[in-house]
Amino acid sequence: MTDRQQEILQILIKEYVKRAEPISSSFLAEKCGFDCSPATLRAEMMALEKNGYLQQPHTSAGRIPTDKAYRFFVDKLLREKEKESALPEKDRRVIDRTIEESPRQPHALSAGLARTISNLTNDFAISGIADTNEFYRMGFSNILESPEFEEEDDLFGFGSIFDEFENYFEQLFGQVGPEQLTVYIGRENPNKKARKETIMVARYPLPEGYEGISAVIGPMRMVYDRNLALLKYITKKMNELN
């Protein structure tokens, strides 16, 4: 992939996350400051589509990212050093307050983190105690507001994550090392019913010697840089606490 194609892909993903509608070459030319013509952008987007990074919905002239595109984007973010700007200072203060004001007890901290993660990301959040399979779920109403889940079948797929998390969380947790993040995108998800979702999982220590886990779950069209930075920050603070 050329440098220009990488830039186009990254900007297209960010714009699609914001707008929730296909992105056209004319939009990129007009709004995103590319120093080339719409025709050149269109040719580059066709090349990205040919290589499996973009797809074109039947009713639109624009393109949307594929699972492969999101994987490229996330891998690049994971390789980069965390950018302070990815997680606003006000969000860091909310996380700090959640941890500081919660009793030093695994259940209380897990419940508080689930609520805070859901509120800050507008996605679905799960936090809990990995050793005992006890989890707190927050933010299902956030999912109901996402255009990706307007169809009943798509909402059913997401509902299977909500209902069956305990059944397959070990597959998620087992691949996350201490102080690490793992991201499952679309068809990578262990739950075969959830093929349009992204699951981000972080692992950290809890008081009393327990292992904690937090997950952000939402449509593939999520704010990856912010959500990754948020889970990294929580992992850092929980390690400092313990």
From TrEMBL:
SUPFAM superfamilies: GAF domain-like, Winged helix' DNA-binding domain. Pfam families: HrcA, WHD_HrcA. One of its GO terms (molecular function) is DNA binding. GO terms for biological process: negative regulation of DNA-templated transcription. Keywords: Repressor, Stress response, Transcription, Transcription regulation. The keyword Transcription applies. The keyword Repeat does not apply. Residues 95-226 form the Heat-inducible transcription repressor HrcA C-terminal domain. Residues 2-72 form the Winged helix-turn-helix transcription repressor HrcA DNA-binding domain. It comes from the Bacteria. This is Heat-inducible transcription repressor HrcA. It comes from Candidatus Yanofskybacteria bacterium RIFCSPHIGHO2_02_FULL_43_15c. The lineage of its organism: Bacteria, Candidatus Yanofskyibacteriota.
